[in-house]
Amino acid sequence: MTIDTSLLFIGGEWRTAYSGEYFDVLNPATEEVIARVPDAGPEDMKLAIDAAMAVQDRFANTTATQRSKILLAAANLMYERADDLAEIMTREEGKPFLEAKGEVAYAASFLEWFAEEAKRVYGETIPANTPDKRILVIKRPAGLSLAITPWNFPAAMITRKLGPALAAGCPMIVKPSELTPLTALAIAKIFSEVGLPKGALSVVVGKDPVSLVKVAMDDFHVRKVSFTGSTAVGKLLMKQAADTMKRVSFELGGQAPFIVFQDADLNAAVENAVIAKMRSMGESCVAANRIYVQRPILESFTDRLVAKLSALRIGNGMEDGVQVGPLIEPAAVEKVERHVADAAEKGAKIILGGSRGIEVGYFYQPTVLTNVTDSMLITQEETFGPVAAIIPFDTEEEVVERANHTHHGLAAYYFTRDIGRVFRLSEKLQFGILGANDGLPSTAQAPFGGIKESGLGREGGHHGIDEYLDVKYISLGGILSENT
């Protein structure tokens, strides 16, 4: 799959940035420049908005079947080009090739799912309060939408937003991370090939995301904003959205607890802990950040986890057998180092890893900490790295209270054979996504999202398309009149 990285995709056309400037995209495993991408500015965002507005009414009035066919064709192309897309992703984001290929399939599944949901947008009739009236409910596209996506899942975080937007009949402007623009441009190329009307999708990326986003947030025509990223940025966007009363859906930061009770299947708990901790090198909002283990099985669990993590091969994700790639940039490595150093200073014991391990690239070894307490940064902030912080606990009541002691509420995991406990914790844990004996709960057909300061709205499932639909009701009078 060949894409021209010297051009942006705006209004269905490939063009240079208004500024004529470019910026470099680096491979985090080698620190080499792999592409130069146009540096879009406010003028480019305005062009994208104008193009979307020009096609909005026509696109909103296409049939659900037409939109469904476009989404399904795009999904099929993603599957066909999975190797090419995965290589692009690995080179710009760092995750191992096989993991990147898995993300491509995951990303395509959202287009498949919402291709079907496009045909399931139903209205209602409601009993009226007088005999001569009828009340009808219809759903219509909310309008031009903006997606602001992160670098850690550069394909899936786009399709999880773009799929429902296009299914609903909403044009969308995607502002991907400047760290990983190539995957976004590759997805744009796919949509340009499957018949998506010009203007229904633009990909605008630049080194100054604040100025780009401000244009869209200030423009009344942008009616919906979907953002995945930090809680701090989400709060700023929410304030900006208030000025024009935009609809928002935010998937923000997490502080996921991973709880292992003494009655759990220990092998399954360890296997799932590796998945929940190490997926995308721990650079995930749903990554296990605090691993609580009931005291009678603490030593056994720790030994097995160390054995699993120590066997993982770290290196360039394009090399065969590599299971752990680099972090995204130097600042990410520095944050992990700061968390580990703070924990060690406060009494934690480093029993695996604890250093970069490879001189070239932004690497950090899989690391295990024991003797971790709630006073350490690693239990208070999102680490976003391959560090497993193990914390002992004694009772169910205690661990629920400690797990909930955070402003975040995105994901939580717990492992137990007690069916009563499964249901109790599903109600007591204050998180939007719960993995009960499951370290990988994300799927296209389920509503992904958090509570508290981890966000608003849901992505995926039949709930996902509702975020892009306005509900209207029509009170129709004069039904019994012969002159109607």
Automatic annotation (TrEMBL):
Protein's recorded name: Succinate-semialdehyde dehydrogenase (NADP(+))
The answer, when asked if NAD is one of the entry's keywords, is no
**Domain Aldehyde dehydrogenase: residue ranges:** 14-474
Q: Could you say which protein family the record assigns here?
A: Belongs to the aldehyde dehydrogenase family.
List the keywords (alphabetical).
Answer: Oxidoreductase
The Gene Ontology biological process annotation of the record reads: gamma-aminobutyric acid catabolic process
Q: Tell me the organism.
A: Sulfoacidibacillus thermotolerans
Entries under CDD domains matching the protein: ALDH_F5_SSADH_GabD
| Domain of life per record | Bacteria
Q: Which GO terms describe its molecular function?
A: succinate-semialdehyde dehydrogenase (NAD+) activity
Any one Pfam family here would be: Aldedh
Q: Which InterPro entries match?
A: Ald_DH/histidinol_DH, Ald_DH_C, Ald_DH_N, Aldehyde_DH_dom, Aldehyde_DH_Superfamily
Membrane-traversing stretches: none
